[in-house]
Structures are given as structure tokens and as C-alpha cells.
Specification:
This is YqbQ/XkdQ domain-containing protein. Pfam families: YQBQ. InterPro entries: YqbQ/XkdQ (IPR056937). It comes from Porcincola intestinalis. The chain has 333 residues and is an alpha+beta fold. It folds into four domains: 88 residues, Baseplate protein-like domain - beta roll fold (Phage tail proteins - horseshoe like beta roll fold), CATH 2.30.300.10; 83 residues, Baseplate protein-like domains (Phage tail protein beta-alpha-beta fold, 3-Layer(bab) Sandwich); 79 residues, Elongation Factor Tu (Ef-tu), domain 3; 59 residues, no CATH class. The chain is built from five helices and 21 strands. The strands form four sheets. Strands 1, 2, 3, 4, 5, 6, 7, 13, 14, 18, 19, 20 and 21 form a 13-stranded mixed β-sheet that branches. A three-stranded mixed β-sheet has the order 9-12-11, covered by helices on one side. The C terminus is likely disordered.
Amino acid sequence: MNNLQFLIGRKPKFYDVSDMIVKAVSSGARGKAPRDLKVTLLDSEQLGSVDTDPSDGLICTFLVDGAEFFRGIVVSDNRSSSRTVEIHAMDNAMYLTKNKGSFTFKKKTATQIFKAVCKKANLKVGGAVNTKFKIKELTKKGTTFWDVIQDALSQTYSSTGKRYYVTSIKGELYLKKRTESNNMIIVDPDTNTTTYSQTRSIEDTYTRLKLYSSTTKKKKTTTKVKKTVINKPLENKIGMMQDVESVDKKIKKSELKKKAETWKKDKSTMSTTMSWSGLGDTRAISGKAICVKAPQLDVNKVLYIDSDTHTWQNGSYTMQLTLKYAASNSDAG
């Protein structure tokens, strides 16, 4: 049984309402912001003296066995006839989705774009890995700050085959690379697994790609195919399914080659995902690697967490994960 703590308030005063916790659920997903937390509290006389008004700018912190698992902003509260109060909070990545603007970046890395956008949103950056690849130009008009960052990461992945993700830790935002860890979780039916299932699909699969550039002169636009990639073995089996992507007219041959390689691994293959449920582990957060053993599916490999939901209730801690297969460790995520 985990020791749970839930603190709510504003500096300098925070209320410890840990004894009133009935249920807590936290969830997150790859490429989505923010992470959220829903805590159900017993609506007792003691809780009546605690401010839960979302318009007061309240901060809450959720700890599991003394370690901070979540910190965020209270966005709603709900009182019911069952004499419970549900507090809904989101981490500070919420501000990236709740602010819109126009941006133009030239020859900047996703790291530089991430830092610039966070600065504009008045959000503190705790750390950011160097993505190295310079994006020739990224222009976004009237879009959320989050979309700008995700566009930069998407272009970086397309050109390098490397994935990165944004996470909030103790009130600070981090840009991290998706990699395996020495402290990786291992799940298997003998120790911590309740159920698992695997889904294979070609719904989002393509068999060929056309990379083209566009040039506009005197209001007339012309296009030129820079490269065509065909996965012939797959196309012979399932038929032609064509994808297109616009590239800069001055793109280098090496960049075209890398885009083609990334596309083939990412989109010209059958997608395979796994749904898993079992005992909870606070290390299992979207974007991280996990070692999965599922003998009935002949699976014993590293997968990456696409979405996660952690639930604490009645003294038990469980989690549900959506896991993604990857062509290789470097392009996983």
C-alpha cells in the first residue's frame, strides 16, 4: 500500500488533505499536453475550511511514498451528493495549450524553439537536450505555443529519425530524448501483469511517398517531385497507398534520403500496439521505455509508452498503458 500525500493551496499556505483521499487518477499521453490529475476527497467538515476554488490560482502537489509524482494548477472542483469533492488539476504545460501567437524561426533547432516558446509563456525550463538539427524555417500563425513545439519536434524526427518529448517535473519543463534507461521497468505475467492485448493494423500505412517542392512566380505555383519512395514488397501485397510531403526546394540529397528512411520506418509498415494493465509503477510515464514479456504473443522486447493512466483506490495501485512498437530503439516513441 502506497503512502499518498495531497497538498493544495497557494504560497505561503498549503493544506494537507491526504487523510481525505478516496481515489486518485493521473494520466498522460505522448505528444499531448498537459498531464492531469483527478483526486476525489471525502467532503468532511475539515475540508470545508480548505479553499478549492479554481479561480483562486491554487497549486496542488501529489506525492507517492514521499516522492513528488505530480505538481499542477487546479482547473476545476466538483462537489456531489455522495459527499465527495473531485479536484482536477493540470501540470504547467497547460499554459502552452492555453496561449496562442504567431512565430517565425529560421535556422533554429527544436531546442532553441522550445526555449524561446517557454520564455514567451513565462515558463521555467529545467533542462533541454540538444536536438542539433537546424530547421530552415518554421512559421506558425495564430496557433498554440504547444503546436509550435510539436511542429519543431515533428520536423526534427522526419529529418533525423530521433524522437524527443516534453515533460513537466516539479513545476519546470524539460525537453528529453526518447531512450532506453538503466532503470527500466520490466513487466511480465508472473509478477505485475493483469491483462495485455496486441493490435496490428494497416489503416495508417502507406506504400509510397512523393517528396515535392513548390515555387511561386507571378501568382503561379509550380511543383517538382524531388524524390519518390516505393515499398514494393508491401505494395504488392496490400495495393498502392500514396503519401505526399512538401520539402524545401534547396533540400540536400542527404536530407531527402533521411526523410525517406524515416518515413519508411514510421509510415510504410504495419503499426503494432499493445494495451497493458497491472500493478502500478510511478516510473511508467508516457515517452519512457519499458521491457515487456508476453509469452502468449511471443513478445520479449523494449516498447515505448504511448499513454498511461495511474489509479490509486482502496489501498491498491494499478496502471493501464498503451505501448508502441518501434522499428529500432533510435526511432522509437
